[in-house]
Amino acid sequence: MALLGAADPSDMNAWRNMPMPKLRPSRALLHTLRSLEVSGKDPRVATKLAARRETLHKAAMTRLRGEIDGLDSSTRSLRILQRKLPTVQRDLGAALTPEDIAELSTAIGEKYRSIQLAITRRARDMIERAGNDAAASQRIDKILANTARGGITRQQYKEVRAFGLERQKDIGDGVLEAATAKFDDYPGTMAGVRQFEDHLRTTMESIGGRASRSALVSFNDAARDRHTELARAALPEFKRELAALPETETGLEEAEEKLDTAKGWDTATEDTRTVYVAAARERRDEIAAIVAEARAEERQRAIEAGGDPELVGYTFTDANSLSRLEFRDERLVIFNVMGLRFAGEYQLSRNDVIVEGPNGTVVFARNGNSLQGMGLTLTRDE
């Protein structure tokens, strides 16, 4: 406006010689509109400015269409398009006619839909090229997650997801087939059985159950048959392992682990699993009897040394099985708090059990077969 004030609008020579500011078409268009407003009634000035307005209007619209058409097929471009029309209306205002707004709105809509379509096609292409190895399903999961945030329509995402799931199913079928082909690589030994179990676990984890029903049934049937063959061949070795277990607390823990492992053999046949469970349980019971006798002797010695028979040899546990106190002898107590174990000492005073631990002293009141202290009630395991 300062530029306009430098010349009389009725002075054609002044208008003719006045330099036009170097502005983008949209800015220059606004400048021309303001000039029209102050041009007075001189038809010569008005005609010149109107022609200038028409030229700049076309340039501005061409530039805006170019900005829209030049956007790449990305989620960022979709966000730009969402803001495009409000931004243009704010910046240009009266410089745009209703026809301009309609034209830009149509262009934005067409570009928006074309980008959505491009994102959809790109996602399908990435899914198609995700590979066929065990990690391909995880890659497709990431593609689908990114596509869900890509600004496409629900229907488009639904179609991409269906394509991805079908692709994952095909990948899973291939992974199961390749895994089945390796079954004969494992020997009929306990090491072979354990390696075979690891093979089954990692295979199923890699596909996450995403395979056709027929492929899963075929894989599970083949796995059961091969697991049974390996287990039967390894049974003598398993019994030798059991016989070699020490008849101690450590040996008892190992026997329990072997028993739990045999119980969990859901891929072996029932009769094979039963044989292993029976062998492990028999050896576990043998060791447990010896350990129980040793514990009883240890407990008796502790009682004779002054230990309380209501405490020595017993474990006290809270209702949530998170905290335990195990009284080993007349002096030693083992703390077990959420799996963390540490040692302490205890002594009796009237009806209280005073426990000295690494974090200080705790006093538990005795109440029948329970101990109460620190807001906890620990009950004796019978």
Automatic annotation (TrEMBL):
Top-rank lineage group of the source organism: Bacteria
Protein known as: Uncharacterized protein
